[in-house]
């Protein structure tokens, strides 16, 4: 199994109870899993624990058979090879699209950076916007640039925190379909958290609900998405 989370527990300082309690989750390589939960349920905390931005009280996280967190190990966030897309996109306003994407390409040569930037811009169909600044882009375009920046270093795992919260309803419906296609095209294992069940159903291969800090299987959508893809192929 590509991602294995076992008995993860976490509480914030000055809290008397755990917000994450014996959380278990296994994810196959290349799958998209949604963690569905109400505000304050701890779903974003799970992402922070995976990314290394928080330290669990107990439990373990394995990514691609490597231990990133347990009672003896803690791999620093920058060493985990994880990409993250935030609610507010977190684009640098003083940087062009090109420079925003290049920012995460540490250790790449100048030529490698140029090649990779062009690859991801082509993937998200925004090659013509590469010299623009974030304020010159729509909300949907900013989200795609944020996604491209997260995918550019070829992360082993992609985390998305409420990726549609800043989009209006019509754009949200359009973008979530594009998002699934882009992620699937890269084969990147992904986890995204949301409070919107329709977002989960549109994008995820599996939906996990978070209740009382623990994971509960809600629905597997692999067969549904596969059938939809085959139907699209036959109608082309």
Automatic annotation (TrEMBL):
TM helices/strands, residue ranges: none
Domain ABC transporter: 3-234
Keywords, sorted A to Z: ATP-binding, Cell membrane, Ion transport, Iron, Iron transport, Membrane, Nucleotide-binding, Transport
Gene3D superfamilies cross-referenced by the UniProt entry: P-loop containing nucleotide triphosphate hydrolases
InterPro entries reported for this sequence: AAA+_ATPase (IPR003593), ABC_SmlMolc_Importer (IPR050093), ABC_transporter-like_ATP-bd (IPR003439), ABC_transporter-like_CS (IPR017871), ABC_transpr_FbpC (IPR015853), P-loop_NTPase (IPR027417)
Originating species: Virgibacillus tibetensis
Listed name of the protein: ABC transporter ATP-binding protein
Superkingdom as given in the UniProt entry: Bacteria
